[in-house]
Design a protein that fits this description.
The structure holds two protein chains of two kinds. By secondary structure, chain A is of the alpha+beta class. Chain A contains three helices and six strands, in the order βααββββαβ. In chain A, about 30% of the residues lie in helices and about 35% in strands. By secondary structure, chain B is mostly helical. The chains are: A alpha+beta, B mainly alpha.
């Protein structure tokens, strides 16, 4: 099954982390992902850079800021192809971000299904 | 053969094989609901055909083949709108394999139980899921046991099964490093069934819950013979069950453990529990169920020795408390402490946990305090605690017992 891993960061905790060490770990993690045939993840700019759009009754609303203002903010994502949820959980637990927030695992709807 | 006989055979097969068949049918596709539907149709077909054609030599294999054909048909109907071709291929291959190879059906119930008790399944739904998938209980029966309306229970079961399939929860016995933690969830689910049946003594569905739990306990011990905690849990259930006949007097009145007539205890059941416990202790470190079973063993020793080793019981509770941090364990420890250091020491220990909000509505917390306060000569405080305990008791036999004890305060 194909899973999308949604990374949510506690931005303060992340900023306080030893940066060099963290991104080295991330480089190693990305390498492991690539070796397993998964695509590299992508990192997003912080929630301060977010803009949220909603159209209601034909009227466009533009909001400065993220969709929800919570302690942990959506920060990036990667995909894995895994035989089952346990394998996906193992990937999520290995991701350095798991220690600075949480990783939400969501199965991707298979093409053709609805 | 009459329709009744065929129905009886079908029922017996359903009891013995239901979980095995569901587990096998769902193992590769993870589609538990689909497996259940197919099996239900196979049973209906059996009730129609067996009275006419006779019961087949291997009823399990007959049902399995019939259910597989139905899965295949249902899959073909759906195939136009979903990408189910791979699953259909699996099923078709398995049908061919089964036809070529009349081996006994592989037992995948354990894998199914681990799927039902997966951490990604809501904790409160793990036990109901096991009851439904392994034992074939319906939402009405499960809802009644969990005080949830059948409609709500039905919906929650459907959602949990959809989740197993949609998010890819594996049907697999976990790897060694993860096994103990995952096994705990399976054991907890089974023990929850037993506790329910044990607490609801006198209720119509209580004996069924108790026997299902013990059946599941035996099953898990037979499937995982090297796991000490599984044996510990089965031993724990058997110790408690051995006292079943002594928990009420002939008039239906509640009898406290201390006052039970030990000649009414089921000795073979206790012996079996002792055997399981010593086998568990030989094969590994002590977990929660082994320690709880050891405490029960120490209580059961009264039958032989006439006395109990209270210091050993307190020490076991110390262990258990360190392991679980549970306020209920702390309460039981305090009650045992009263036997070694007196009621005042026990009341001091209870004062330490009295702040825990969970205990405020826990009947045994108030009943234990009431007994200890009475022993310490604090009559009016004891009276108040008994009143609290009575107010929190649903069981009429226990309520009568507590009221009698409260009345006895005045005479003491």
């Amino acid at each position: 099954m194909r899973y999308m891993m949604l990374i949510h960061h506690d931005e303060t905790a992340l900023a306080a982390a030893p940066q060099q060490e963290l991104w080295q770990e991330y480089a190693a993690f990305n390498e492991a992902l690539t070796k397993a045939g998964a695509s590299n993840g992508e990192r997003l700019k912080g929630s301060a850079a977010a803009t949220t759009i909603r159209v209601q009754n034909g009227k466009k609303h533009v909001l400065d800021g993220p969709y929800v203002d919570t302690k942990e903010q959506f920060a990036g994502y990667f995909f894995v192809e895994a035989p089952d949820l346990d394998a996906a959980i193992a990937w999520a637990a290995q991701c350095p971000s798991a220690r600075y927030g949480s990783i939400e695992i969501r199965p991707v709807v298979a093409p053709g299904a609805y | 053969m009459s329709g009744d006989e065929a129905a009886c055979t079908a029922e017996r097969v359903a009891r013995d094989s239901y979980g095995r068949l569901v587990a096998f049918l769902a193992a590769r596709t993870r589609d538990v609901a689909g497996a259940e539907d197919a099996l239900a149709e196979a049973f209906t077909a059996a009730l129609r055909m067996w009275p006419v054609d006779g019961v087949p030599l291997n009823p399990d294999a007959w049902l399995l083949t019939a259910a597989r054909r139905r899965q295949l048909d249902a899959g073909r109907r759906r195939q136009t709108r979903t990408a189910g071709a791979a699953q259909l291929k699996i099923i078709a291959e398995e049908l061919d394999e089964m036809a070529a190879n009349p081996e006994p059906i592989p037992d995948r119930r354990l894998a199914l139980m681990f799927a039902c008790a997966h951490p990604a399944i809501e904790r409160g739904m793990r036990t109901p899921l096991i009851l439904q998938t392994i034992l074939g209980l319906n939402a009405i029966e499960i809802g009644a046991a969990f005080l949830v309306s059948p409609a709500t229970m039905g919906q929650r079961l459907v959602r949990a099964k959809a989740r197993i399939k949609d998010i890819g929860i594996p049907f697999r016995i976990p790897e060694r490093e993860e096994l103990p933690e995952r096994l705990d969830a399976v054991l907890d689910a089974i023990y929850a069934v037993y506790s329910k049946g044990w607490a609801e003594i006198g209720e119509a569905d209580a004996p069924a819950l108790v026997s299902e739990a013990i059946w599941l306990g035996r099953l898990i011990v037979s499937l995982l013979p090297e796991q000490p905690e599984a044996k510990g849990m089965l031993a724990l259930m058997l110790y408690a069950e051995a006292r079943h006949g002594a928990r009420r007097d002939p008039g239906g009145r509640y009898v406290a453990l201390e006052q039970q007539d030990t000649t009414l205890w089921d000795i073979p059941q206790i012996d079996l529990a002792e055997e399981l416990l010593s086998a568990a202790n030989r094969s590994g470190p002590s977990g929660r169920y082994q320690i709880e079973a050891a405490i029960q063993s120490a209580h059961a020793a009264r039958r032989l020795l006439g006395v109990r080793n209270w210091p050993a019981i307190v020490a076991l509770y110390d262990h258990l408390l360190a392991l679980t941090g549970s306020p209920v364990v702390a309460l039981n420890r305090a009650v045992a402490l009263a036997e070694t250091e007196g009621p005042d020491a026990a009341l001091v220990a209870i004062a330490d946990i009295a702040q825990d909000r969970r205990l405020q509505t826990y009947q045994p917390f108030w009943a234990a305090q009431a007994h200890l306060l009475a022993r310490a000569g604090k009559k009016s405080e004891s009276h108040q605690a008994f009143t609290q305990a009575v107010g929190l008791t649903a069981d009429p036999a226990v309520r009568r017992y507590l009221l009698a004890r409260r009345l006895a305060l005045a005479d003491a």
